[in-house]
Amino acid sequence: MTEQAQANPASEAPVADEGGVSSAAIAMLGADVEIDFSKPLPEYDTLGAVAFEARDKRAPGRHFALLCARTYVPRITMGPSYRNVKSPCLMRLLDGGIVARPGDQQQFYAYIFERPVGRKFLFQPDEAPLRVSEDHLVDLIINPILSLLLEFRNADMVHGAISLSNLYIGGPAGAETLTVGECLSSAPGARQHPIYETIERGPAQ
Description:
- The protein is of the alpha+beta class.
- The protein is about 15% helix and about 25% strand.
- The strands form two sheets. It has a six-stranded antiparallel sheet with strand order 1-2-3-4-6-5. The protein has a three-stranded antiparallel sheet with strand order 7-8-9, with helices on one face.
């Protein structure tokens, strides 16, 4: 299904009218999910995938769509296993399927996620990461990730995309929460810098 996708799903995306969102900018995923191509959300972009604002009529809250490109094949068959991981620190998957881009009707595989609380731990490689007290580092980041990895192992699945740029920190100081970003839009390790890999896998990158 992903063979129809293009390398850059955001190119030539329709824009909103000055008075509001143009209906020509809206694409439907099934009968319940609206994807607004006039509202990109670059803070949720990943390697080979572009994010747009989305609304799921079945679920209240703030959502986004992640449109996958052909360059990095999405892990379509792992969607059910991902949803079975019930960790509160994992970015929540709501839906997924083929969507046609308004205008040229090119098709892409899209995932619909619940937006995480807070902002990326590291948004750009050359910027300073969010400051986290050393007193909270283990409880905020290390322990939740270890617990999440155990759940992935129990689901017979690997994450393969845990990095500072795929972690979101939110909440008041001293009571922050962690959200680990998605791992479905590309193959495990495809977007990882060697620094995040084991000694054995690092040279292979």
